[in-house]
Amino acid sequence: MEKKEKLYEGKAKVLYKTDNKDLLVQYFKDDTTAFDGAKKEVLEDKGVINCSISTAIFEYLEKNGIKTHFVERLSSREMLVKGCEIIPVEVVVRNIAAGSFSRRYGVKEGTPLKKPLVEYFYKSDELHDPMVCPNHVYLFEWATKEELEEMTNTALKVNELLKKFFDEIGIILVDFKLEFGRHNGEVILADEITPDSCRLWDKSSMEVLDKDRFRKDMGKVVESYKEIYKRIMERYEGM
Ligand code: C5P
């Protein structure tokens, strides 16, 4: 497999074409952004750690029957993925109130939700990813009813799997964001699953281990990501 020209550059990742028209290389940058790119820093090694964490999570999800774009890890910052047409709807699953949910509905951060909540956001930096409901998704034809239902069901399955995955290493999965794409007529999980896209709190100390450390200038961002990866390796390496 040969890496070819750049197809797309996002805030934290770059996609490259390959000599196989069905496959892309997803490269993880050290660039870290928040508030739609208004806050930006380069955090040394973040790309390597995020590529490692995302690889471990995609492998775990695939083993548990979730279809993803992940094919294999290629290098410290690169994974081979199936090329897909990204559906511009970000699916957020929440177990505990935090972030925009707490602000929007006036619920104290840390309040457990009675059951997992699924929310949808239109993926658009220009519009600051507005929250949408299924009717917007159908009206704008971002996805069909069948596709959105499948995305929702998969997101809830991923939530159950990841709650267990993180619980085993002493981490609470507060919330996370997923992106999906179409590949050969199927809807598959795409993008990344990393501490950039999840809220993860230490179970005993309630210490924040995710991108909120960057958003809120708490320091030790990469150190926290490394701590998550260390625990994943101790528990899951070779499984
Ligand atoms: O900001 P908000 O509370 O809506 O974020 C919910 C979850 O989705 C968080 O884990 C956050 O990191 C993630 N997210 C993301 N990319 C976005 C928006 C939210 O990864 N564009």
UniProtKB/TrEMBL annotation:
Gene3D superfamilies attached here? ATP-grasp fold, B domain (3.30.470.20), Phosphorylase Kinase, domain 1 (3.30.200.20)
Query: One short Pfam family name for this protein?
Result: SAICAR_synt
Q: What is the lineage of its organism?
A: Bacteria, Pseudomonadati, Aquificota, Aquificia, Desulfurobacteriales
Q: Which family does it belong to?
A: Belongs to the SAICAR synthetase family.
- Pathway participation: Purine metabolism; IMP biosynthesis via de novo pathway; 5-amino-1-(5-phospho-D-ribosyl)imidazole-4-carboxamide from 5-amino-1-(5-phospho-D-ribosyl)imidazole-4-carboxylate: step 1/2
- Give the UniProt record's GO annotations in the biological process aspect: 'de novo' IMP biosynthetic process; cobalamin biosynthetic process
Q: Which HAMAP family match?
A: SAICAR_synth (MF_00137)
Q: Which EC number(s) does UniProt give?
A: 6.3.2.6
UniProt keyword terms in alphabetical order: ATP-binding, Ligase, Nucleotide-binding, Purine biosynthesis
Keyword ATP-binding attributed: yes
In Swiss-Prot or TrEMBL terms, this protein is called Phosphoribosylaminoimidazole-succinocarboxamide synthase
**All residue ranges annotated as the SAICAR synthetase/ADE2 N-terminal domain in the record:** 6-231
Tell me the PANTHER family matching this sequence: MULTIFUNCTIONAL PROTEIN ADE2, SI:DKEY-6E2.2
